[in-house]
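Write out the 3D structure for:
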Amino acid sequence: MNVQIDESWKQYLQPEFEKPYFEQLTEFVKQEYQTQTCYPKGKEIFAAFDHCTFENLKVVIIGQDPYHGPNQANGLCFSVHDEIAHPPSLINIFKEIETDLGKPYPKSGNLERWADQGVLLLNATLTVRAHQAGSHQNKGWETFTDAVIKTVSEHKNDVVFLLWGGFAKKKVKLIDTQKHHVLTSGHPSPLSANRGYWFGNQHFSQCNTFLKSKDLETIDW
């Protein structure tokens, strides 16, 4: 199977593309995109990998599903296209960066600038039907993205994993915590953040402190 994904990932993920579950997933996604409105655009499904090469990867942030409103999803978790209103979780992420690092609130919610610096913004499910949250869950995407997390854990060292909320925290079982740095907190969604589980986690400064301690370039959040 020929999947359009950055070459640096292909050598590690090619075995996944050849498994029966991935063949079935590909058929499902093709059918959905032909008959339904789905997000993100086809060419952006693997954008997280195209912007963050395997060699460059330093940080992993795990989301659940792409945004399912028009023009929002761009293939990176929590990120939206330029000029699009910031969803509530993204607003809370930027607010935490403001207090944690003293950086001004940004105009654009497009997180490609993070991905290009080595932040893998990985949704567990990479596609969704318009206006139907979770509509592409349990079709094979999670098997694939779990394999991605395991691959990163196995073949890289000193990666910072930011696990926000119950869903992401469960992924810790895929990570070798002896060789990587895992930070957990509540989810940035208003439901969790307003109950005190998000604000003040200082994940962005802690992440950079760790990278610095390993002589790695820090992220300009």
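The chain has a mean pLDDT of 96.
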